[in-house]
Amino acid sequence: MPQLEHFDHYVRFFKVLGEPQRLKIVGLLAQSPHTVEQIAKTLKIGVSTVSHHLSRLSDAGLVSAKAESYYSIYRLNSEALRDMARTLLRQTEKPTVAGAENPDAFERKVLATFTESDGRIKAFPTQEKKYLVLVRHVLTAFEPGVHYTEKRLNQILANYNEDTARLRRSLVEYHYMAREGGGGKYWRIDTPASADTSGAD
Amino acid sequence: MPQLEHFDHYVRFFKVLGEPQRLKIVGLLAQSPHTVEQIAKTLKIGVSTVSHHLSRLSDAGLVSAKAESYYSIYRLNSEALRDMARTLLRQTEKPTVAGAENPDAFERKVLATFTESDGRIKAFPTQEKKYLVLVRHVLTAFEPGVHYTEKRLNQILANYNEDTARLRRSLVEYHYMAREGGGGKYWRIDTPASADTSGAD
DNA sequence: GAACTATTTCGATAAATATAGAAATAGTTC
DNA sequence: GAACTATTTCTATATTTATCGAAATAGTTC
């Protein structure tokens, strides 16, 4: 299990912000610190409700309170928002191919139908869904982080099918591999694992 | 009303991602396009449930579908995630002071207690909550977007209290004003309005 | 066009939770 | 310490919604 213990934290973060009143509270706190009563009056909802929302925001690490005389002054933790925003940006820059190494029933079926026992591709399916299975199958022949010359790439692709140009084009088209502008170097642009998808139960 | 018509969109975005199964689906689609059935099998939930989730993800602009033979192949809209991440980053860089011009009951009371009728500050409250009201009160004397020399800043602050150094320090400390490193220029670092807080009802 | 396939829609149910009022708590002021 | 204040906790209720099975739909294959 990779960095997946953060999954629950992500869910909490989004769920907490996915409620109109709470998002408004965050908006208020983004402008300046507030007390519970101030928020309740501005939003025209009960204090106990506000307290409840602040408690959930606090659980998610989005706000923090500070006692001051009678009042609890709540502040926004801008860092929490910033961190999540950066995490999201990082994620969107790295497509992945997880699941390629333990195929489900459908993928097994497609591989059984369209590849030889040694892995060579017998024929290309027209359905994109099936074709993608084969592209990912070919991708497993390449190491993440390694740069391949086009010549070496073609040698490896030739183990799968004589139409190496087609395979090369598909790998790039589906963003499984990147190509350097000039020198003709290729490399995998995925990562071992992105967000949690392995499951909870 | 500023750019607040996006409020509902923000809520939908966060709410949609704040559900474990949907977040897992996003994780799957971040790796590769999937059909409804594939997702259902991987997550061990019913197809109709997956279809429902995909529908909500689609409403939020997070995924898009493409018909292909029997199947609907769903893809992640990475741009939607990227855009939101960038919006969040932008927001966290701009604290604001909205609400300073129409004070609520509490702020009125504080201002009545601690300022003269001409706006001068009679005394400084020790409670931070009340002190903040005065800091924001002083801030209204400055125009957004205008750069002030320290000399001019002190002239204006002197209209509120002789302890101009304290006021200047507080304005910077609470991030209502920024100071340029060398030349001693000051300016408001807020914006007219950030996320929606004005209200939906 | 008939048979078939994946997906979507519909209807119903169970679980999660936003909300508010009342009671309890923690802390301040005099 | 007594009176007071804001906040939190508790209890209950109403709303939202995740989930599934069945029926309806849209599209493909032969």
Question: What is the structure about, briefly put?
Answer:
Two copies of one chain form a homodimer. By secondary structure, chain A is mainly α.
Topology readout:
The structure is a homodimer of 201-residue chains.
Chain A: H1 7-17, H2 20-31, H3 36-43, H4 47-59, E1 63-68, E2 71-76, H5 78-92, H6 105-114, H7 128-139, E3 148-149, H8 150-157, H9 164-173, E4 177-179, E5 185-188
Antiparallel strand pairs in A: 1-2, 3-5, 4-5
Helix pairs in contact in A: 1-4, 3-4, 6-7
The structure holds a DNA duplex (30 and 30 nucleotides).
Structure description:
Two copies of one chain form a homodimer. Helices cover 49% and strands 10% of the residues of chain A. Chain A folds into two domains: 89 residues, Orthogonal Bundle (Arc Repressor Mutant, subunit A), CATH 1.10.10.10; 84 residues, no CATH class. Chain A is mostly helical. Chain A has nine helices and five strands; from the N terminus they run ααααββαααβααββ. The two termini of chain A are 14 Å apart. In chain A, α6 packs across α7. The C terminus of chain A is likely disordered. In chain A, the strands form two sheets. Chain A has a three-stranded antiparallel sheet. In chain A, strands 1-2 form a two-stranded antiparallel sheet. At the A-B interface, α1, α2, α3, α5 and α7 of A face α1, α2, α3, α5 and α7 of B. The structure holds a DNA duplex (30 and 30 nucleotides).
